[in-house]
Write a structure and sequence with these properties.
alpha+beta, 6-stranded mixed sheet, elongated, 7-stranded mixed sheet, 22 helices
């Protein structure tokens, strides 16, 4: 919200330096992002810091231009003459109260007066004398230049009449500024219209301040000044509006109030320059006196207005009084809006209609057929209240943001509908010369009930940490126009009729206390230690174990990523081979932000693969993981199941090249298996097994299932070649895993046994056996441990051999065994007996033979 200082001063006196005022507003929740000076003296270096002595300053960006009162003044042009050597230039006879000058200009808005002799009424302009510092109107951006004497097409030029761009008002350089008739000739321009603009970030919770009056109200409360309310009583001298138009509201829940006013016999013309200047400083483009009146009133009091050509409405009604009504759209209906676009409507859009059809998108934009034109003579002015959520959905569906929608989508109190129409009618009357019809048409079927909240000084002390008397609290709230009744230690505060952000009950108490804190001053609230009782500390075992898994994976060299939970069926289908289907329905979004993310994901690995694809072209080695939910619809509930998953993806070399040498060969199936084995081991999960298994998205023969206590918790392997083709990946293998996080966490034991460091030395021995090729090495290790009866503390497979020496269909497995007990050193005889038990059990269970 860009708020010109001169406009704010219409409603409240400014008693603080502008930089200090910006600090006060920012501390109260209205962050002043920039102060733009337009003519007023710029602050001296360090002034902003000095203004905040004794408190921490908030830095505000300061920009703009200062108009020298000696060289930039109000001038009056009395005659416009042709240039002797240039058709696109004119010479102007101008006075500045000291002397008469001949100035040269190419301003397009002066050519209509060229060669017509002395003007009946002088044109008041912004005049820059020789030596003035202004912005160069012919250069992009804002480049300061100093006016110097020069000859242009044989005519000496040393001064000029200025455009808005040259004075830093706007970027308009088409013509020079033509001031209003009341501009005093020769006076410093800064005294007549010097200004500054506060650029304030309006957050959704302070949408009530998206207008000049709202900002002035905040300033009055923060600086203990009196707020001057504008008049909401337009001069009504026309015929009564009753019987000349009607309005019906079909669904009050989306349109609680609708107000109409009428002005007749208007004359379309430009608005007064001061009005145009304020609109431009506020970021809006002046159009005509009627349209400017609607925008001016909206920026002033916060109620968006819409002007209809009343005669067009009468014509559409067959010469009868127009009968307007509001309703929800029917899907497929169409309307051409003011921007000339034909729009197909959704059933949540609210419409203003008449008996002939559609008139406007309620709260967003009017229709083109009934807009005000240069031929308009009678205007029907609308002010209304619209449902916040319907407006938001319409803006999103139509991609049609507007100043009106900005406010209605954040909340405008129904009271403002009447006040806005009254204010707009008065501005139209002043600027168009029209006559305002007596009375208004006001349909208010769903009156807004302003909440009343009870608080006590004890609430203020407990919530804010400050001690205030009841009357002091009441005065703080009254400064914001709350109605407050004090009964002993209890205050009953009723929200003012321009606010929708005050709730009821406990929420209302918090809202009111926030207002007390804002006006009192956040920076005045002392720091204090918490003096209330602390809640019981209860551990969240699931989150703690989840963090434990994260820490272990990071320690194993993986990096955590966080991906979008929103996806599309097509994105997830890339992870499936041809013919494989996902028959489970997706949870679809009612209002997706983008067209390619419309459902909640079924697969976490699919999301992680998108990260791999984006980053594979940027770096050779990737080892990433994510822990997050997937979303599976339930037939017995609106809400889906959200089971947690762990996804891992690895690709590239085992290590990056280094000066000491490194294994730069590509990672394979066993690297990922090693990560999972290390994870399970460090989680102290017993009975974890890896068994070969076929999964469609993994390479045949290079995939496995992870199970704990006989229950599968996930699968891993090398990505299937046909799946790889759907991703832009390097030629190196890509290893991936997806585990059920809930099953994994539930398998972590509450406690585990810790063995002391052994005091006696171990006995190391190698053992090689020949057995059928189909028998897994893990089965051999299990039997060795069983036969060792606690004396075998470590088993390491170090060699696998297949060849003629062991026979066809056979393999040789060689293990390093560690024998150790805690109370003595094992003798050779004891180790020999253990070894014999191991060999005997392997022969019995696996038909294995000792390799000699």
């Amino acid at each position: 919200m860009k708020a010109p200082l001169s406009w704010i001063k219409d409603f409240v006196d400014i008693t603080l330096p502008l930089e200090e005022l910006a600090h006060r507003l920012t501390m109260a929740g209205l962050e002043v992002e920039e102060i733009r000076y337009v003519g007023l003296p710029l602050p001296k270096t360090g002034e902003q810091a000095r203004a905040g002595k004794g408190s921490q300053r908030l830095v505000t960006k300061i920009t703009g231009i200062e108009w020298d009162p000696e060289t930039i003044v109000v001038g009056a042009i009395h005659e416009i003459m042709p240039h002797p050597n240039a058709d696109r230039l004119v010479l102007c006879r101008l006075e500045d109260s000291k002397q008469e000058h001949i100035i040269l200009t190419g301003a397009s808005n002066l050519f209509q007066y060229k060669g017509k002799g002395p003007l009946e009424k002088p044109l008041k302009v912004a005049y820059a004398r020789e030596g003035a510092k202004i912005f160069d109107g012919h250069q992009p951006g804002q480049m300061l230049v100093t006016l110097k004497r020069a000859k242009i097409r044989g005519v000496e030029s040393y001064s000029m009449a200025c455009s808005e761009k040259e004075l830093g008002i706007s970027d308009d350089h088409e013509g020079i500024i033509l001031l209003d008739d009341d501009a005093p000739i020769g006076s410093p321009l800064v005294d007549y219209m010097g200004d500054a603009v506060l650029d304030i970030a309006i957050t959704p919770n302070i949408a009530r301040d998206a207008n000049i009056l709202g900002i002035a109200r905040e300033i009055a409360a923060l600086t203990n000044q009196k707020l001057r309310m504008p008049s909401f009583e337009p001069q009504m001298e026309g015929k009564s509006i009753q019987g000349r138009v009607s309005v019906d509201i079909h669904q009050p829940e989306v349109n609680p109030r609708f107000v109409l006013g009428l002005i007749e016999d208007i004359r379309i013309a430009p608005s007064p320059y001061q009005v145009q200047r304020r609109l431009r400083l506020a970021g809006m483009r002046p159009i005509s006196n009627v349209v400017d009146a609607t925008n001016y009133a909206m920026l002033e009091v916060g109620e968006p207005l819409h002007a209809f050509d009343y005669d067009v409405l009468v014509q559409r009604a067959g010469g009868k009084p127009p009968a307007l009504y509001t309703r929800r759209a029917r899907r497929g209906e169409r309307l051409v809006t003011l921007d000339g676009v034909e729009r197909q409507l959704d059933d949540f859009t609210v419409l203003v209609c008449d008996t002939a059809g559609l008139l406007s998108l309620a709260g967003v934009m009017g229709g083109a057929e009934t807009e005000v034109s240069d031929h308009t003579r009678n205007v029907l002015l609308e002010g209304a209240a619209w449902n916040i959520f319907s407006t938001r959905r319409t803006v999103l569906a139509q991609n049609l943001p507007s100043e009106a929608a900005y406010r209605f989508s954040r909340g405008v109190h129904p009271t403002m509908a009447e006040l806005g129409v009254r204010r707009g009618l008065e501005w139209m009357r002043r600027w168009t010369g029209g006559r305002v019809a007596q009375g208004l048409v006001d349909n208010y079927p769903l009156p807004q009930r302003d909440p009343t909240v009870e608080i006590t000084p004890g609430d203020v002390e407990r919530w804010l940490g400050i001690q205030l008397a009841p009357e002091a609290i009441a005065n703080l709230l009254r400064s914001l126009e709350f109605e407050v009744q004090v009964h002993g230690q209890t205050l009953r505060a009723t929200a003012p009729d321009h606010r929708l952000d005050i709730g009821e009950g406990v929420i209302g108490v918090a809202d009111v206390l926030e207002e007390v804190a804002r006006v009192y001053g956040y920076d005045r609230i002392p720091e204090s230690r918490m003096a209330d009782s602390l809640p019981l500390q209860r551990g969240n075992l699931t989150l703690e174990r989840e963090d434990q898994v994260r820490d272990l994976l990071v320690n194993l060299g993986l990096q955590e990523v966080i991906t979008y939970r929103i996806t599309s069926p097509e994105r997830e289908a890339r992870l499936r081979v041809a013919g494989e289907r996902d028959d489970q329905p997706y949870l679809r979004l009612a209002n997706p932000i983008v067209s390619d993310r419309v459902v909640m994901r079924h697969s976490l690995l699919s999301s992680v693969m998108e990260v791999v694809e984006r980053n594979a072209r940027l770096q050779d080695r990737l080892a990433i993981f994510e822990i997050g939910p997937v979303f599976l619809p339930r037939q017995d509930s609106v809400l889906p199941d959200e089971p947690s998953r762990l996804a891992i993806a690895m690709t590239g070399p085992r290590a990056l090249a280094a000066w000491q040498g490194a294994d730069t060969s590509a990672m394979d199936f066993y690297d990922l298996k090693g990560v999972l084995a290390a994870l399970l081991e460090n989680l102290h999960i017993p009975e974890a097994r890896f068994e070969p298994a076929a999964y469609p998205c993994f390479h045949p023969g290079k995939s496995a299932v992870v199970s704990v206590a006989g229950q599968a918790i996930g699968a891993f392997g090398e990505l299937h070649p046909l799946v790889r083709e759907r991703y832009e990946l390097a030629e190196t293998p890509l290893l991936a895993a997806e585990l059920d996080m809930e099953l994994l966490l539930s398998a972590i034991p509450d406690h585990f046994q810790v063995r002391p460091v052994q005091a006696f030395p171990p006995v190391l021995e190698d053992l090689a056996v020949i057995l059928d090729d189909a028998i897994p090495a893990e089965r051999v290790a299990e039997l060795i441990l069983k036969a060792g009866q606690g004396t075998v503390t470590s088993i390491q497979l170090f060699d696998v051999y297949r060849g003629e020496q062991v026979g066809e269909g056979k393999k040789s497995l060689a293990y390093s065994l560690t024998y150790q007990v805690s109370d003595r050193t094992l003798t050779d005889e004891e180790v020999s007996k253990i070894r014999q038990r191991i060999v005997g059990l392997l022969e019995k269970e696996l038909n294995a033979n000792l390799r000699r």
